[in-house]
Design goal:
The protein has 215 residues and is α+β, with helices and mostly antiparallel strands. The protein contains seven helices and eight strands, in the order E-H-E-E-H-E-E-H-E-E-H-E-H-H-H.
């Protein structure tokens, strides 16, 4: 049994309306599907969306196939329970994943760069069939393959990611370095020691994950 983590890049025709809104709306960043099922063409999912509930709800209001939904706001986004009729792009992906031994392991991430990232587990031949049966307009990039049953883990925490982005923005990673850790701390509005710890741990996690996937 193997595990495979893939990134599926979509063109305009294969992008779902909800995913398109995440790509186009400045008020939505990404959606992480935590679990769900599909029965007779009706998808039921629960997910977490980073962004503004009103922007997401306006997209649902324009979709004819929405059966019901419930939104629960949090400090940094909102949870969604959604039941909707799948359109052609959703059914095509579902058909590609419907191999005999293949299991999709949540979470499934809908990203603002028109990609979906997900992990699938199954026999090697069936995992290959998943890639071969994707719709025209969907390009698969295999990010890693494991000989054991495993799942994708976020290499860095949200706070570490924020610190790494701040470091990049202030020129911390430029050669020669434009600004030091003090500038990172100022951008994060935290102590220098805190910024240093976040950056170092984030770097360690990213390097570790990169080496694991490449080696």
């Amino acid at each position: 049994m193997k595990s495979m983590h893939v990134s599926l890049a979509h063109d305009e025709e294969t992008l779902s309306p909800i995913h398109a809104a995440i790509c186009d709306s400045p008020e939505l960043e990404r959606e992480v599907v935590l679990g769900g099922q599909s029965v007779d063409g009706v998808e039921t999912i629960t997910s977490f969306v980073t962004g503004e509930p009103s922007a997401y709800e306006s997209v649902l209001a324009d979709l004819e196939g929405v059966r019901e939904y419930d939104i629960t706001p949090t400090d940094d986004g909102f949870f969604v329970y959604l039941r909707r009729e799948l359109e052609s792009e959703g059914l095509s992906l579902l058909n590609a994943l419907a191999q005999e031994t293949v299991v999709v392991v949540p979470p499934i991430e809908l990203r603002a760069d028109r990609t979906i990232r997900l992990t699938v587990v199954g026999h090697p031949a069936d995992l290959t069939d998943v890639l071969e049966e994707l719709s025209t307009g969907v390009i698969a990039d295999v990010l890693w393959v494991s000989d054991s049953v495993t799942v994708a883990e976020t290499p860095v925490s949200d706070r570490q990611l924020e610190a790494l982005e701040a470091a990049r923005d202030v020129g911390f990673y430029e050669i020669p370095r434009r600004n030091g850790i003090e500038a990172v701390a100022a951008k994060l509005d935290c102590a220098v020691s805190t910024a240093s710890e976040l950056v170092r741990r984030g770097e360690a996690n990213v390097v570790g994950r990169t080496l694991e996937t490449q080696l």
